[in-house]
Design brief:
Layout (H helix, E strand, L loop, with lengths): L4 H18 L16 H21 L7 H6 L5 H19 L4 H5 L12 H29 L1
């Protein structure tokens, strides 16, 4: 049986939590030479992106994204980032478990970077999640190597 969107998102948001748990608090916001963002910044970006496009866009949660803040608000405690991921997982679960096949084939109801059905938007957002999850994993391992 093919996994649902909710199962895939939950699995990889759990992986995001695992990555953040594995990095030391003192290097969570560290950037390596030639790397623009830290693990903390990328995590905030993923949370903001998914809360905006899935939570607010599909679930009408009322979340108001501050995209610039995702990249400038550094120094939060690791436990706060982990809490934000847990809250996101709950939001994703609520929204995605409410969608049916007709919903997935409908046009994405909010403003999206391109014309897309809900299904296409969720595929795009899932790819975005995994792109940055890979960056976080690689950056965490680079930081650990120097220690």
């Amino acid at each position: 049986m093919q996994p649902s969107f909710n199962e895939l998102y939950q699995r990889d948001l759990n992986r995001l939590s695992t990555e953040i748990e594995a990095i030391s608090e003192d290097v969570l916001w560290e950037r390596k030479p030639g790397v623009i963002n830290s693990c903390g910044v990328l995590t905030q970006h993923l949370v903001g992106n998914l809360r905006h496009f899935v939570g607010s866009g599909l679930g009408n949660t009322g979340y108001k994204r501050e995209r610039e803040r995702e990249f400038k608000n550094t120094g939060l405690a690791k436990k706060i980032l982990l809490q934000q991921i847990e809250e996101l997982k709950d939001e994703i679960d609520t929204v995605l478990s409410s969608l049916n096949e007709d919903d997935l084939q409908s046009v994405y109801p909010g403003k999206f970077p391109f014309d897309a059905t809900v299904n296409e938007a969720l595929i795009h957002l899932y790819g975005h999640l995994n792109y940055h999850l890979g960056q976080i994993n690689y950056l965490r391992r680079m930081i650990e190597e120097k220690s």
